[in-house]
Amino acid sequence: MERFEIGMLAVSKAGHDKDMLYVIIGIDKEYVYLVNGKNHTLNAPKKKNRKHIQIIKYVDEQLKSRLIENNNIQNEDIKRVIKLFCLKNSK
């Protein structure tokens, strides 16, 4: 079984948001809560079945610690992490 962590990146594998990149901000038994800073913000995260996402073993440690501590995180911080990941992994 894959291990889900707050702050980890994930890609949707199913649904109308297939192939979208998100940050995990919450975890429960069957679902994860995902944000991308645009249409799924910190105030309205996407609730997604664990089976329908593929985790990316990349965690921005600064973002993770701020999420865990609930330390004044903004949607712009989420967008920045996703953008930096995409830039690092583009050819």
UniProtKB/TrEMBL annotation:
Source superkingdom: Bacteria
Q: Which GO terms describe its cellular component?
A: ribonucleoprotein complex; ribosome
Q: Which UniProt keywords apply?
A: Ribonucleoprotein, Ribosomal protein
Return the protein name.
Answer: RNA-binding protein
InterPro entries on file = Ribosomal_eL14_KOW, Translation_prot_SH3-like_sf
- Report whether Ribonucleoprotein shows up as a keyword of the record: yes
